[in-house]
């Protein structure tokens, strides 16, 4: 049991080969690893690129699935100004951005 | 702004979506490249906007995700066209009005003069009318270069002219020169002569033979710098002469006298307070009087307040309106008091001095005496100035010295 927990923790903390290549060769992680790219202007506007789909949309919470996890935005009067295959723009009062 | 215009042109609908799988609906729209905008929660329902032409493509997606939509708003040109189908004559009227306004932009309806000081706008406009440049002329027929050249040739005092076509306006910008003596380029050789009696204060010769020096007293007409330059041989004897355009800066001290008599008795207009106001409207030159009353006054002044109809700053239409006010006055005989006439005389003398100041001439001394003699106020004054005194005079054949065979000069 303890061994299993220790192995699980090691696996989580281990840096993958892709991440190492990005770090060593100085490559853009969003292109190579497919990470989501977020650009924020204050707490009013947020641009998200490289996402998979919308999981939940509500006035105070938006959940977006990315390649390597999920992004949760909480706030008030959240609006998706536009979204297409490549990019989405979220406006409103953003209080929290959480990665999981 | 451009994007909003494009969206209005294509037509936009605002749709409310209901159901359990709204997020799946959005994701499938995205996968099918249906561009949704402004997704937000309004009054407890989720609404979004999209292009009106693509609404039909939502049908299979709605069926797949078991969601329903309701169109809340329709905005844009396609929906406006549908509304106007029932009001055809209104739409045709709007189109015709637009075409008429557009056709009016091909003409000049307003001619303005800017920068004029001693020449009135009416004088310049009358000159333009004589060149067939009037309100109502086609823009294509207006030759700005020819107008500028003609005005410069007609008015010597105007040193710079610019004719600008802006909207339906022709704007003539002018700049006047206060010094009326503008030197002309002479083809033949000339002397520089004194234009007034003066004492020469400075002379700087660039070409020609100077005949005076600083401190000399000259009379009007005396040659200051000669246009005949003698050429001497090795023995110092004249062997030939050259004719040049004399060029020099010659300043001299001259005196101007001033004399004016102002009668103490004068007549002044006194407005009685009676007035008549008429309203009018003009379309190009056709005048339509909207309210007129007959003028029964013996003496009156007519004041017109004219306004042009314009859509934009430079888009004038051939319509102007205004009011015509007729003010009655009567002549009243009055007499100046001593203080008043002295003030008026001083003002006149200062106006006389201002002419020199505007030309940049240095005034070194001024004197004036104001006396009341009989029924007049007599002002006598002298002004001593330092000013350029050279004046061009062509070289005459008789002035040319004869050179004999021995090389000595013989002048007549």
Features of the shown structure:
heterodimer, A: 100 residues, alpha+beta, Immunoglobulin-like, 2 domains, 6-stranded antiparallel sheet, 25% helix, globular, B: 412 residues, Alpha-Beta Plaits, Ubiquitin-like (UB roll), 5-stranded antiparallel sheet, 8 helices, disordered C terminus
Layout: helices, strands, pairs:
The complex is a heterodimer of chains A (100) and B (412).
Chain A: H1 2-13, H2 17-25, H3 29-32, E1 37-41, E2 45-49, E3 51-57, E4 61-66, E5 69-83, E6 87-99
Antiparallel strand pairs in A: 1-2, 2-6, 3-4, 4-5, 5-6
Chain B: H1 2-10, E1 12-18, H2 22-31, E2 36-42, E3 45-51, H3 59-65, E4 68-75, H4 77-84, H5 88-104, E5 107-108, E6 110-114, H6 121-130, E7 137-138, H7 144-154, E8 158-166, E9 169-176, E10 190-194, E11 198-207, E12 209-210, E13 217-218, E14 223-226, E15 228-232, E16 238-243, E17 247-263, E18 265-283, E19 286-291, E20 300-312, E21 315-335, H8 338-359, E22 362-373, E23 376-388, E24 390-394, E25 402-403, E26 409-410
Parallel strand pairs in B: 6-9
Antiparallel strand pairs in B: 1-3, 1-4, 2-3, 5-7, 8-9, 10-14, 10-24, 11-13, 11-17, 12-14, 15-16, 17-23, 18-19, 18-21, 20-21, 22-23, 25-26
Helix pairs in contact in B: 2-3
Strand order of the largest sheet of chain B: 13-11-17-23-22
Count of helices of chain A? 3
> Any idea what the CATH architecture of the largest domain in chain A is?
Sandwich
Strands of chain B, count: 26
| Strand fraction of chain A | over 45%
Roughly what is the average pLDDT of chain A, rounded to an integer?
A: 85
CATH top level of the largest domain in chain A is Mainly Beta
Task: Assign the CATH superfamily of the largest domain in chain B.
Answer: ACT domain
